[in-house]
Amino acid sequence: MAAKKKNWLLYGANGYTGELIARKAVERGQKPILAGRSEAKIRPLAEELNLPFRIFSLENPEEVRNQIADCFLVLHCAGPFIETAVPMANACIESGTHYLDITGEIPVYEKLNSLSSKALAKKVMLLPGVGFDIVPTDCLAVMLKEKLPKAHFLELGFSGFTDISRGTLKSALAQLPYGSKVRRNGKIETIPQLSLKKIVEISGSYAEFFAIPWGDVFTAFISTGIPNITVYSSLPASQAKILRLLQPTTVFLKSSLILKGMQKLVELAVSGPDGEKRKQGSVLLWGEAWTEASSKKVSIRMRCAEGYEFTIESALAAVAKVEKGKFQAGFTTPGKVFGSKFVLEIPGTKILS
Questions:
Q1: 222/258 same-domain check
Q2: For 287, which of 14, 115, 140, 218 could close a Cys bridge (C-beta 3.0–4.6 Å)?
């Protein structure tokens, strides 16, 4: 049983976000087991931080199970998650180890949700999205549902997320040719990228937001039961124009050869925001919910820390809660298992209105 185990394992500890989480964990006196495929990358970090480490890939299911069998939890930070999440989650289920990750990809959530009954039978929790994807928006959705239990429509949005890591960009490239996603009458639908927009006022200024295929299109339905969901992100006019011009070419990213080539360029050219940008940055979020007849409407505005800074804090907060016995077996969401106020426990989070 996961509850009787003492260790937790951070897989993908050498990645941009994984390393940041590892360093913060050590600052707080935690001793996760660092793990990944490359000893050349994992060993130096583990030795610097004086942490135990393990080297294994996800190709051999039996080896993965053996490597995590003594852990109550795996925090999975190794992308691309569309390739790595299910092998790790299956190993977690078989070994009685809770699974957490930091992805925000709808296809990954769908795959993990399909494992829910297996996880439930083993009393294992599958909790993806314990970072900026999707803790603040998921908790915001649950807050809105609590304020308006009969809500039929939900819109969420955020602005201020700027620099991204190579892992995030590589995942985004893989999703780009498949359009944006919305949920209508309980079903996820595909719409063209940048085809749905709205102007939103936050803190006295107005910004243009575009619908994006954010994870909440899938998970907020599980968290709230609201059947119509759209998630928006702000985009400067210049970037929106460039994306529109590039739109006809994104179909070529369906070719695995071209996609891998582009992702290789990302590996060479992208690093992610530095410490100063993470500390100084912040993200503004908004959410609105209303009834079918539009007779009642509720809204919330919120500010949180810069996306990666938030992810470091929220991922470790989630680990701490599970370590204390807080979990729900099967596939679940941060807002469901930890409650809507979980986001307010993360440093830098504040309700604005």
A1: yes
A2: 140
Out of 102, 128, 154, a domain closes at: 128
Integer Cα distance of 342 and 314 in angstroms: 9
Residues 124 and 139 in one domain: no
Q: Considering the domain boundaries, does residue 320 fall inside one?
A: no
Residue 75 lies in a domain: yes
State which residues form the domain around 64. 2-128
Measured torsion, CA atoms of residues 324, 325, 331, 333, in degrees rounded to the nearest 10? -40
Whole-model pTM: value is 0.92
Q: CB-side exposure of 13: number of CA atoms within 13 Å?
A: 34
Specify whether 119 is located in the same domain as 141: no
Distance of CA 114 to the CA centre of its chain: 18
